[in-house]
Design goal:
By secondary structure, this protein is mainly β. The chain contains two helices and 24 strands. The longest helix has 30 residues. InterPro entries: 6-blade_b-propeller_TolB-like, Sensory_adhesion_molecule.
């Protein structure tokens, strides 16, 4: 009887212990979050169709998307400073300097962790513009794209003193050389990876006459630049190894590129072109290495003064709507054809 009672007692203790452990397990299960492979592989939130940024009179001209930091970078024609924009519309100052009178085109050279900024003065920034810089300034400010620290500031207008200047847009080649358009002089500048500036190409055909001439510029991996002229919509192909041999890209006369501003080389055969005066983004394609090209897609923006465009993903591009110089906001909008 005593042996039987002992077994019964041991059994009761085991059951009691099991029940306590089961209760504890249920309690912890309710407190701890569930974890599964599905949670770890959740897709990122879809890119927004439009980001409206409540910044008074910023009037950004240039835009780039920094994939590593998940934000846009924008310039400011009226205030000069460079800022970042997140998908939730949050704007933060990234870099500023008294020499940044009007910041225009941007180029994010992610490989070298550089942000290149075209600097000009057309009088839009009333607090920083001076008689000495008005329509005389052309420069490139180069920043560390990680922390916003200034790497160097390169004067360009001094290469051709006595002429009107407006540094507008920037392209960077595989070696880190930068090419900058001047909208008020028929010049494309070059700044090498060490910061040395020179005249890359100067030709009367690049002039805009009394208006804006050269504007958007991109580097094609086959070794040439594609450059747009705003006043008449001419598109040039400029070999990097022999710029004097530049040619005009033939586009059907019925497909006007007048008002050409920012460019985005989407792939080797596809170029997106923003036309501010036409209030649209045009998709151009070429099958003969940009000897000829044609428009095969149009995205209508409306009267929002679109300026330029950036790639966000392999399939997405976003165009910048600065609105008017005194507007209380600007917008970044996903392009669809």
């Amino acid at each position: 009887m005593r042996y039987s009672s002992l077994l019964s007692e041991v059994g009761s203790l085991a059951v009691s212990r099991f029940l306590r452990l089961a209760a504890l397990s249920l309690l912890l299960g309710g407190l701890l979050p569930a974890c599964s492979d599905d949670d770890e592989n959740e897709p990122e939130a879809a890119a927004p169709a439009k980001i409206t940024v409540p910044q008074q009179a910023l009037h950004p001209e240039g835009i780039q998307y920094d994939e590593s930091r998940k934000h846009f970078l924008v310039s400011s024609r009226t205030q000069g400073k460079i800022g970042t924009v997140k998908d939730d519309s949050t704007y933060t100052v990234f870099a500023d300097d008294p020499r940044l009178i009007s910041t225009i085109g941007l180029n994010l050279d992610a490989t070298r962790q550089r942000l290149l900024v075209a600097v000009s003065d057309n009088g839009a920034n009333t607090t920083r513009s001076t008689s000495a810089t008005l329509r005389q300034l052309a420069a490139v400010a180069i920043y560390n794209s990680t922390n916003g620290s200034l790497i160097r500031y390169v004067d360009l207008g001094g290469l051709r003193s006595g002429q009107n200047h407006f540094a507008n847009d920037i392209a960077v080649d595989a070696q880190g050389n930068a090419y900058i358009t001047d909208s008020l002089s028929p010049i494309i500048y070059k700044v090498d990876a060490q910061g040395n500036a020179s005249i890359f190409l100067e030709n009367a055909q690049l002039s805009g006459g009394t208006g804006f001439g050269l504007n958007g510029i991109v580097f094609h991996p086959d070794g040439y630049l594609l450059v747009a002229k705003a006043n008449d919509g001419t598109l040039f192909k400029v070999p990097v190894s022999n710029p004097a041999s530049f040619t005009k890209v033939t586009v059907p006369a019925t497909q006007s590129l007048t008002g050409a501003d920012g460019l985005l080389l989407f792939d080797a055969q596809t170029l997106l072109l923003v036309s501010g005066s036409q209030a649209r983004v045009l998709r151009l394609t070429s099958t003969d290495a940009w000897v000829t090209a044609g428009v095969n897609g149009t995205f209508i923006t409306g009267a929002v003064s679109p300026t330029t465009i950036t790639r966000r993903s392999p399939s997405d591009a976003y165009v910048l709507y600065p609105y008017q110089a005194t507007s209380p906001r600007f917008a970044i909008v996903k392009v669809g054809f």
